[in-house]
Amino acid sequence: MEVSPWHDIPLLSGDDIFNLIAEIPKVSNAKMEVAIDEAFTIIKQDTEKGKAPILHLKHFASLIHHILGFFYCVCYNIHWNYGLLPQTWENPSFANSKVEGALGDKDPVDVVEIGERERKIGEVLKVKPLGALAMIDEGELDSKIVAISVDDPKASLVNYVNDIEKHFTVISLLPNYLITSFISLLLFIL
């Protein structure tokens, strides 16, 4: 029996605990993602102009611009696990006034999992959300939830976004990029 990671895995895994589908493992640079237009929404290598891209800081250009004040583009391995929340969708008909009225990108909601373990593509993790970042990618809202796996050794130490800086290397972002009610300061892991 084939299962769609996006449609068949439940979003919730308990009180305030969500399922995360890992797409890009920590220390990787292959841009993997759920193919939302294919049967069973398989996870596969993304393509740009017919080629398989590697991750560049350009994929996080607006984030880097606001942190460093300039655009910087180099190849790198990401320092977190990256994935999606199943059964979610960035609504293209909802204009979010907190992010310049941007409409959703029609993709599942993305998650940056900050734990110390490297995960496998397709692995389902139970995560607790710590905060969120609203990013605009090619004019569309592309939210990122910052979370930690409940089985991570530091999970019991990190319950709010403010706890992250005590246990991880972080860069602070401006408060006007906050889009969730459960955080007061957004810290993004690099």
TrEMBL record:
One of its GO terms (cellular component) is cytoplasm. GO terms for biological process: phosphate-containing compound metabolic process. Gene3D superfamilies: Inorganic pyrophosphatase. The keyword Cell membrane does not apply. InterPro entries: Pyrophosphatase (IPR008162), Pyrophosphatase_sf (IPR036649). Keywords: Hydrolase, Magnesium, Membrane, Metal-binding, Transmembrane, Transmembrane helix. The chain crosses the membrane at residues 168-189. GO terms for molecular function: inorganic diphosphate phosphatase activity; magnesium ion binding. Pfam families: Pyrophosphatase (PF00719). It catalyses: diphosphate + H2O = 2 phosphate + H(+). Its EC number is 3.6.1.1. The keyword Transmembrane helix applies. It is an enzyme of class 3 (hydrolase). Its cofactor is Mg(2+). Belongs to the PPase family. This is inorganic diphosphatase. It comes from Phaseolus angularis.
